[in-house]
Records
---
Amino acid sequence: RYVNEIVETIPDSEFDEFRHHRGATSYHPKMMLKIILYAYTQSVFSGRRIEKLLHDSIRMMWLAQDQ
């Protein structure tokens, strides 16, 4: 929950340069930052383990907002 509160304090305008509106739809950079920061707080650094957490952890699912 703390990760969500901290990231939500960052204005959306800070993420504008990371958003691209061409090609396939992408994930919002703010949501990706939440996922990575939460994984790091759980001592998970591997992309595959982060993906596994997204499928198994209710907290990660909540942060990802079913995206």
Note: The helical segments are 2-8, 29-41, 47-56, 58-64.
---
Amino acid sequence: MTNSVLSTSIIECPQVIEITSAAVQRCMSDFFNPLALAESPLAGLPFVQTRIARQSETTALQQGLALRQVLLDALNQLKPEDGEPNPQDPNWSAWWILNHRYVQERGQNRYENIAQLLTVSKSTYYRKLHEAMAWLVAKLRAMDAESNPHRDANLQVTSGVLTTPPLPSHECFVGRSDLIQHIKTQLSHAEGEQRTLGLWGLPGSGKTTLLVQLANDPDIRQLFPDGILWGSLGPNPNLVSLAHSWCRAMHVSPEALDDAVTLSDKTRLLHQAIANCRVLIVIDDVWDALKALPLKIRGPGIGLLFTSRFPDIAAMLAGNNILKVDELTLEYSINLLNAYAPYVVDHFSEQVRELATGLGGLPLALVIVGQFLQQASFLQQTRRIELAFGELRNTLFKLTLADASVAANGVAPSERTLQAVIAKSVNLLSPEARLALGHLSRLSHKPHTFSEEAALQITDANYEQLDELVNMGLLEVVIEQDSRYAIHQVIADYAQSRIPSSGAERAITRYYANWIARQNDTGEAARLELSKSTPCAASRAAARLRDGFEKSGTGSISIS
């Protein structure tokens, strides 16, 4: 194949009008001024013009009224299917805030009335308003794509079927240069099965962002000039539809595609189309290795990249060629926060350092918190910034903050909170493994570790349940230390807030008391174990045992 699929598959669309947050917000502010709405670039959108064309004559007033009706239609799509409007219900939040701010209140006492009904602070109100506006933008973009097939075809090519999604304008990519270079080297120098790589990491560790960066890298594009086939699977993928789209992208004839009904038929056609091409297949967010295997097409010039939150699935798909997407260092964590809230980083360095440490280098957590600080600091008011730091000290508040930027890609903000992302994994656990996670969350989080013996006795679990937690990516094996584990701060925060763990601290105290009593040496081993495992608040009782043990120099402590 001599022509790049990337260049030949994109349809040129004349006069594309970009639906931006700023443009939509301006239109909502002018909701009751149709003449001002007529001046908006959004009045020129094809699906707005279609409404105008139904009129006998076109005037500025009619243009404004048509755009207002489109805005109202999009706003009403934010309503849940059932129930009465409830400002306290998260499912009603986006519609309720926008409707009351721009439609019902008509600009009168906007903040005071709405915030009082929501019973939230001013900073929380503006965060929720930002999330709601992002979701309204996503609805308008979906309506535009549905009404304009040529524009939709272009968007499909550039946002998830053939090529990689374009990098979001808000995204700051830090701390991954070494990993990027390692992957590029592996793909360029390896042959055959060695060109298959599996990436895994915690939920929110930035695996998808890493793939997006890779697929937009000029070196990767040069290495795979015939195209990049991109697919995101998730828990319930439509493999037949994805394979069909890839076949079309690789110019499989419509007649052959019509005859190919099953997944195996379509993947056979795809294999024939790309067997001798230099193509990179990128399969993101794999939850079931068996569902990804039909798309694992080999060829001398084909590269394969898989990502999964589950390390065992990454290993099933890529064998020994797996890489972990680790958390960011503290330095890079602060750099990422600085990309969103530079004023805060410059003027509140101690609080930022403490906050970044508590987030454990998890990119999704840093992005969400960075967005929140950005909203709190745009006027550089010390009072509002200090209020934001106070709210971020609340664990549940942090867990339910949403990544507002994802709404522009058609994802509901409520689906992109730390709580929602982690819950997808936790909900798959057996009851016994879930209870074990709740107990382990009371131990010290990374970088501290705990022994396998401690994990088993504190949780009353077995090896199978520990392995389940590891395979789900919720508990980490410390490779450098034999039979030791670690739990991430954000995972621990989630488990402490959502999983009942009655008796956990007592079990921790009992274990370490008995552990100390078993020691027959001078106590050095006991001090080492406790220093690794119990410096956090949840294990203060065990730490007190350590202090008592060091003072007495004996192993006689016991707890009934």
Note: Residues 409 and 464 are 39 Å apart (CA to CA).
